Amino acid sequence: MRNQWYTSKWAVISLHVIAWLFWFSLPTLIPMLFHRDSDQGPRPSWDHVFNWTNLAVNGCWVVFFYLNADFLIPKFFNKRKTWQYVSILVGLGAFLVVLVSLIFQLGHPHKVVVFRRESLFSVLPFIFLWSVSSAYRIISDNVKMNQLIKDRENENLKTELSFLRSQVSPHFLFNVLNNMVALARLKSDKLEPSLIKLSGLMRYMLYESDEEKVPLSKEIEYVSSYIDLQKLRYGKDMQINVNMDGQGEYHLIEPMLLIPFIENAFKHGTGMIRQPEIDISLEVNKGVLDFRVNNKYNGESAEIKDKTSGIGLNNVIRRLNLLYDKKHILTIDKENGWFKISLQLKLQ
Q1: In 10 A of CB 17, how many CB atoms?
Q2: Which of 83, 197, 277, 278 is 20–30 Å from 124 (CA)?
Q3: Are 259 and 223 in contact (CB under 8 A)?
Q4: How would residue 309 be classed by pLDDT, with cut points 50, 70 and 90?
């Protein structure tokens, strides 16, 4: 989903720069409104805007604005540390009042500085900028939250349709069922466990995928059943190496998050490849999932196979960015005829 123009980085920076230029210019703009006629006295000069006293005072207000918006509110107010936030705000306000008075006194050494009057001139900007920075933070957070909710809603609709239509390709099911028919004719002992695995696969797709989070053990069980059925499909024509160690770990994960990587490996790791091989590994260490899928591939046939069914890597990358944001590292490499995927994911 495309963001609105006013939420883009360049627009936000431009609006901030314009607002601060206007604020810095107020000491000159306000007198100009009341001294339009030259007979009423000397015209205000723009040199006052660049006076070091004005720059220093306004620099204090700039620091306070972003300190409140980007640090105090997120770290204290949003975490319901209200009394701490109020205490820091009062202390910071007193400090700024004294600091601004001292800057004014240093900038005008020949004038008698009345502390009460200067304090009044400092308190009003403090209250105004606190109100504006707080409103800015609240509005900014609401915009981001609404955007995230919309993105997640759209993504859920897309992934739901993808799950129902093409998560396990019809070609895969067709070949598995044909292999089961052959096992039935041979009265093989492999028929019953194969049917159980296929039943578990379909049950997980229909019911478990509706959950927001599932235990990692169930996701691994689903992936293992998928791989076992693929082994049944290809037999000795493909070398499939699997090492998954995470059953004993109780963590939660987004359902059907790992299967697109494996489906992609089988889709691109077969056909027109000499001695096809797929390596799959999974382990959990201190709450971090390390998942790797490597497969031999043929670059000439990859583009054709990308047009076939399957959720694809773009979809799962989008899901990772939305659901795990900064809690994952995904690397995809192609080297020496191997397609390599590495995913490190911080689990709940």
Answers
A1: 10
A2: 83
A3: yes
A4: very low
CA 111 to chain centre: 55
Q: Which CATH class is domain 167-346?
A: alpha beta
Residue 118 contacts residue 100 (beta carbons within 8 Å): yes
Distance CA 245, CA 263 (A): 20
Reported as a pLDDT band with limits 50, 70 and 90, residue 7 is low
Give 35's pLDDT tier (boundaries 50, 70, 90): low
For residue 69, give the amino acid letter: A
Kindly list the distances between the CA atom of residue 93 and the CA atoms of 20, 96, 100, in Å, as whole numbers in the listed order.
20, 5, 11
Sign of CA dihedral 47, 52, 54, 55: positive
* SS3 state of residue 52: helix
How many other C-beta atoms can be found within 10 angstroms of the C-beta atom of residue 139? 10
Pure H helices in 108-207: 115-166, 170-186, 191-206
Query: Which among 134, 128, 119, 125 has a CA at the least distance from the CA of 86?
Result: 134
244: how many CB neighbours lie within 10 A of its CB? 17
What pLDDT digit, counting tens, does each position of 210-255 carry?
677 888 988 898 888 888 888 887 878 889 999 988 666 688 988 8
Q: Which of 243, 214, 215 is nearest to 227 (CA)?
A: 243
Rounded to two decimals, what is the model's pTM? Answer: 0.53
Gap between the Cα atoms of 30 and 177, Å rounded: 82
Residue 237 in tokens: 């024509």
Instruction: Give the other-Cβ count within 10 Å of 44's Cβ.
Output: 17
Domain boundaries of the chain, sorted by first residue: 5-149, 167-346
Parallel, antiparallel or unpaired: strands 288-296 and 277-285: antiparallel
How far is the C-alpha of 36 from the C-alpha of 230, rounded, in Å?
85
